């Protein structure tokens, strides 16, 4: 039996080899590894205080930013509506001004001495009637229509409501005695002509408005007929194309 051993056990065998060395540790030594515990920063007191401070700081910033945004949006909307209202009012004034100019033109035509005399000759009838019609048509076409590029036709109507002269031969002879363009003009006070609603003319194939004014005799205030100017509505393009007050974007 070897030295240092017991026959019955109970004693450590002194000659047994030592335990193997642990990796990374010097030879002949043995070290037990201990785990490292990681601490969550959001669960610590400092982390909670930091989050609370950030929340307290962000809440007023968010409120102020929101209030500023809604105020700015409201201001922009208000200013835009005011600008649009101003532009619309300006366009309305321009439209009224242009239509007033067309109305004044019609009144000017109704006071033309040549038109008055020719209409009276036509009413007298006889041999002079055909010549008066021919000369009046030429006068309207060459001397009156060129004064306004938006006039597409001119009619002269007698007191019975019959078109006796016109720049458009297709209109001569038609009866408009029951139409507002005639009845309203003959009932109106002088220099206050009638303006029709816009419509598509079957004779001219144009979207137009008509303006009529009474024709009075040279010898008094007796109404002897009506003059009608037919205006192409494209004259309103001048108003739409006017960019005054519209800014760079229009």
Ordered list of secondary-structure elements with their pairings:
Layout: H1 45-110, H2 113-124, H3 127-144, E1 151-158, E2 163-166, H4 180-187, E3 194-195, E4 199-200, E5 207-216, E6 223-232, H5 237-241
The total count of helices amounts to 5
**Assembly state here?**
single chain
Q: Helical residue percent? A: 40-55%
The N- to C-terminal Cα distance equals 117 Å
Main sheet specs: 6 strands, antiparallel
- The Cα radius of gyration reads 51 Å
Report strand %. 5-15%
Order of helices and strands: HHHEEHEEEEH
Question: Shape, please?
Answer: rod-shaped
Q: On the 0-100 scale, what is the average pLDDT? A: 79
Structure description:
This protein has 250 residues and is an alpha+beta fold. Helix content is 44%, strand content 14%. The chain is built from 5 helices and 6 strands; from the N terminus they run αααββαββββα. It has helices at residues 45-110, 113-124, 127-144, 180-187, 237-241, and strands at 151-158, 163-166, 194-195, 199-200, 207-216, 223-232. Strands 1, 2, 3, 4, 5 and 6 form a 6-stranded antiparallel sheet that branches. A hairpin with a 4-residue loop joins strand 1 (151-158) and strand 2 (163-166). Helix 2 (113-124) packs antiparallel against helix 3 (127-144). It is rod-shaped and about 120 Å long. The chain starts with 44 loop residues before the first helix and ends in a 9-residue tail after the last helix. 18% of the residues are buried.
């Amino acid at each position: 039996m070897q030295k240092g051993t017991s026959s019955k056990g109970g004693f450590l065998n002194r000659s047994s080899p030592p335990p193997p060395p642990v990796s990374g540790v010097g030879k002949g030594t043995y070290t037990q590894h201990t785990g490292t515990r990681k601490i969550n920063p959001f669960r610590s007191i400092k982390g909670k205080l930091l989050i609370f401070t950030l929340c307290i700081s962000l809440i007023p910033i968010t409120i102020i930013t929101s209030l500023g945004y809604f105020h700015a949006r409201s201001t922009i909307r208000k200013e835009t509506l005011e600008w649009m209202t101003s532009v619309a009012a300006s366009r309305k004034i321009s439209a009224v001004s242009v239509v007033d100019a067309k109305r004044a033109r019609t009144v000017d035509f109704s006071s033309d001495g040549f038109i008055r005399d020719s209409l009276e000759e036509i009413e007298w009838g006889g041999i002079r009637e055909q010549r008066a019609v021919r000369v009046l048509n030429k006068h309207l076409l060459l001397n009156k229509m060129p004064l306004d590029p938006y006039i597409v036709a001119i009619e002269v109507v007698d007191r019975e409501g019959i078109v006796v002269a016109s720049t458009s031969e297709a209109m001569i002879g038609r009866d408009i005695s029951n139409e507002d363009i005639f009845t309203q003009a003959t009932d109106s006070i002088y220099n206050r002509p009638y303006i029709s609603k816009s419509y598509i003319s079957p004779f001219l194939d144009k979207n137009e408005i008509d303006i009529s004014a009474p024709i009075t005799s040279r010898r008094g205030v007796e109404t002897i007929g009506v003059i009608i100017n037919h205006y192409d509505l494209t004259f309103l393009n001048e108003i739409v194309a006017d960019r005054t007050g519209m800014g760079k974007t229009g």
